[in-house]
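Notebook entry, structure prediction.
Reason for the run: the old model in the group folder had no record of what sequence produced it. Starting over properly, with the input documented here first.
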Amino acid sequence: MPGFSTLPDLALRTLGGSVVAASDESFAEKESLIRPGRPGFQAETFGNKGQVYDGWETRRRRSPGHDWALVRLGVPGVIRGVVIDTAWFKGNYPPHACVEAASVEGHPSPADLEAAAWTEIVPRAELTGDSEHHFAVTDERRFTHVRLNIFPDGGVARLRVHGEARPDLSVYDGLGLDLAALANGALVTACSNEFYSAPNNAIAPGLARHQAEGWETARRRGDGNDWLVIRLAGRGVIRLAEIDTTNLLFNAPGAVSLTGLDGDREVELLPRTRLQPDTPHRFRLAHPEPVTHVRVDIYPDGGLARVRLHGHLTTP
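New structure, fully documented this time:
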């Protein structure tokens, strides 16, 4: 699997993504394109429009042209790769597709987006049915929207837009923010173990609904402890740490510690501190030194639902 697939899906609905318009959605709704999780399917489940699909499906085109869907990224960023997934579409998938991207600030309407300048980031490529298609992207520009074009019609289950978040943090000037939020540009850059679930889940938006929506490691049988490193949204001073073990009833860590990193300098933000299962913990921190990364150590293993590190960006 390509390396870009470990990066956040910037289009994901749970990150705030939206399918703002589509040329057609006669058979299956466009919103399914950015739904979290693998597409589901149950054979011989028919509704008024035919077989029910967990994806986006257009009618059979009888006129010239092609179908398309416009997606607003939940978090603007640099796109490193795109996945077009035709899962379960076996006789009704589009034979070809391409992807374009645009950067449009503010809150554009579909008409505004139609008039925008679009850049092709995935050239027209052949698709097959019931398959994931991975396309690396080399454009270094920051984009806010993508357009999936399918030729001429058919069904696509999911569109994944993996990349590095580049949000506009100027709206927080003079205010505090969660420096560890994925939506603000933070990213988990290293992790000791991700056997059960991905470490970037720990900095995802919202609350974890179940333990799979957090970060959970395998059971540790040797010495040491598990850990992850968060690259903050920017260099900043952290005042409040939230360590949430919600949903982790019998697999929460026994303790946690936080270490700030700034180049070669290490700053103890939170000494080793006991945790309770299924509990949101909040710790005031009294270390004014700015840092760029934070190492979260859990002892000895287990999982965290969310990590929030509230503070202020420092002046560059």
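Summary: Residues 3-165 form a domain with the Jelly Rolls fold (CATH 2.60.120.260).
The old model has been moved to the deprecated folder.
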